[in-house]
Amino acid sequence: MSSKTRIIVLRMKEIIYTAIFIGLAILLVMLFLFMFRPKKDSVSTAAEPAESRYIPGLYSASIVLGSQNVNVEVAVDRDRIHAITMVPLSDSVTTMYPLMQPALDSLAGQIVETQSLEGIEYPAGSQYTSMALMNAIRTAIEKAEQ
To answer: Are 107 and 120 in contact (CB under 8 A)?
Structure first.
């Protein structure tokens, strides 16, 4: 029997380089897996559209003031009321109904801050104007909720 003994000589430099390249390869694979895996947030938001309170957009309801229509516009996002404005507010409307704009500003500030139509305090001296505006705002927000 002849035994052929082979002696392999490895240099320490080659072993270290090989270990470093294997470590970098493992790190690179883990990085790719981490970066390209599906995210839980994107899956949950796509699967749960019922969580949002409103359909994003600009919704309006009209108020008849004498012979003119004034639209109350409510801008909403998926979860928030962003702004409440009155359009078109002509000079004749502001002259005939001077409490309309200050009452709307007061109501809009409270609604945007609390994000609710409950517990709104009406400005003194313009309670009936504020009630008419609140009905229009409520109608516009109901359109946004559908």
So the answer is: yes
Q: Can you tell me the distance from the alpha carbon of 126 to that of 100, in angstroms, rounded to the nearest whole number? A: 8
At 77-126, the pLDDT tens digits run: 888 888 888 887 677 777 888 888 888 888 888 888 888 888 888 877 88
Long-range residue pairs from 126-129, CB within 8 A, at least 24 positions apart, any chain = 126/99, 126/102, 129/97, 129/99, 129/100, 129/103
The full length of the chain comes to 146
Q: Which two tokens stand for residue 38?
A: 């599906």
| pTM recorded for the entire structure | 0.62
SS (H, E, C) the chain: CCCCCCCCCCCHHHHHHHHHHHHHHHHHHHHHHHHHCCCHHHHHHHHCHHHCCCCCEEEEEEEEECCEEEEEEEEECCCCEEEEEEECCCHHHHHHCCCHHHHHHHHHHHHHHHCCCCCCCCCCCCHHHHHHHHHHHHHHHHHHHC
Q: What is the dihedral of CA 145, 123, 61, 111, to 10 degrees?
A: -20
